[in-house]
Amino acid sequence: MARRSRASTAEDLMDLVALLPWWAGISLALLSYFILHAVASAPLVLSGARQDVGQLVTSSLWRGLAYAGQFILPFICAIGALASALHRRSRRALVDSATKSKAADALEEMTWRQFELLVGEGFRRQGYTVSETGGGGADGGIDLVLGKGGERFFVQCKQWKAFKVGVTVVRELYGVMAAGGATGGFVVTSGRFTQEAVTFASGRNIQLIDGQALLELIRDGRTARRSEGTHRARPLASDAAPLSDTPSCPLCTGSMVRRIARRGSSVGNSFWGCSTYPSCGGTRPV
């Protein structure tokens, strides 16, 4: 999905703060103000010695930068905190709108940015930590990085209204997963997938989520929150229910799921891993 270009370092910093909780941005604003204010207010020590002239100039320069920074940096952090709060509110509004809709048509009316926010919120409600990467250019790269149980998962979001997501997209994600050491991946679309894409993803720890499945994912997350854990949401990726022909764990005799090696000589290769990892580290070759 297309991304806007960065205009300045201040904008980059603002976007970075916006990824944090709003209260963290406010804390950074206050902390930066007090530190820089202390530097700007520190008295200059004049000894009159000629060798101290250079030190005096340097100290004056730092004081000048700190004086300006004590207003600029907290302002940037405060704007980032405001953006974080607005993003959170926007995500909640998107979730409410999507869950009230009875069809996936609501997803097609969203912008790509709204769709990406909705996908991220859906995974958050399934217990994942979500980091927005900003993608890799025009409709390329990884949009979200998920974390759960010490494992990483890559997500590509495709808000395509007129076309089905083909096998090329899934192949690209699989390659990035191997290169980046991800345990699994997700391709999420507002539309549908081709049969070739479904066939390729099968057995490769890549889950394809179409528009209707995404709505169910979000609704499951809302139900799980409201019931305070009495309802278990539909499992994803490493928590997925095993296939009927999967082996049992050699250590705990539990079920196993297919994973991808992230390190060592077998990096990028598939293997069977215990579904209770990291509690159990049992493995079997594929």
From TrEMBL:
Keywords: Membrane, Transmembrane, Transmembrane helix. One of its GO terms (molecular function) is DNA binding. The chain crosses the membrane at residues 20-45, 65-86. It comes from the Bacteria. Residues 107-218 form the Restriction endonuclease type IV Mrr domain. The keyword GTP-binding does not apply. The keyword tRNA processing does not apply. GO terms for biological process: DNA restriction-modification system. It holds the Pfam family Mrr_cat. This is Restriction system protein. It comes from Variovorax beijingensis.
